[in-house]
Amino acid sequence: MVLDLLENLGLYEALNPHFSKVVDFVANNDLAGLPLGRNEICGDAVFANVMEVKPKAKEDAFIEIHRRYIDIQIPISSDETMGYTPIKELPQANYNEADDAAVYPVEMPARDYFNVHKGEFVIFFPQDGHAPAITSSPLKKVVIKVAVD
């Protein structure tokens, strides 16, 4: 997991061959003005999901993991709290290949919680269980999906 200022995103280009496309996309687009839904960057290798999430308490947040994609999550309209648990500390869960996700019950809280402020981003790798979208008010966010390959 990586948490940093959005202006430092370019420092992480070497972590994945597709990250340069992400850096270019973020630098050349008004993230707040992107339409909701899927925004193409590079086919299925890199794309941005823009969403509006409803307020959610920690008790209602579920941990999720992905195998095929790295998540780069960027809160746009306000700050967001996220939970984190390393996958090695999680039990086996049913993985849905089509959705690239395994979801844990809300009764299983994350090990740690942290805030991601406007102007920051977090990168979740396949080894990072995460419980996103904990917020007291509606939130617009961008989740850039990057193929692991």
Write the layout of secondary structure elements.
Elements: E1 2-5, H1 19-27, E2 37-42, E3 46-53, E4 64-65, E5 69-75, E6 80-86, E7 95-96, E8 101-103, E9 112-116, E10 120-124, E11 128-134, E12 139-147
Antiparallel strand pairs: 1-10, 2-3, 3-12, 4-8, 5-10, 5-12, 6-9, 6-11, 7-8
Beta fraction of the residues?
35-45%
Structural class: mainly beta
Q: Percent range for helical residues?
A: under 10%
Low-confidence stretches: none
SSE arrangement, N to C: EHEEEEEEEEEEE
Number of helical regions: 1
In which order are the strands of the major sheet placed? 1-10-5-12-3-2
Radius of gyration: 14 Å
Separation of termini?
Answer: 18 Å
Main sheet? 6 strands, antiparallel
The 3D shape can be described as: globular
Mean pLDDT: 97
Tell how many strands the DSSP assignment holds.
12
What are the main properties of this structure?
149 residues; single chain; 12 strands; mainly beta; 44% strand; six-stranded antiparallel sheet
Give a verbal description of the structure:
There is one protein chain. This protein is mostly beta strands and 149 residues long. 6% of the residues lie in helices and 44% in strands. The protein is globular and about 40 Å long. The model has no long low-confidence stretch (mean pLDDT 97).
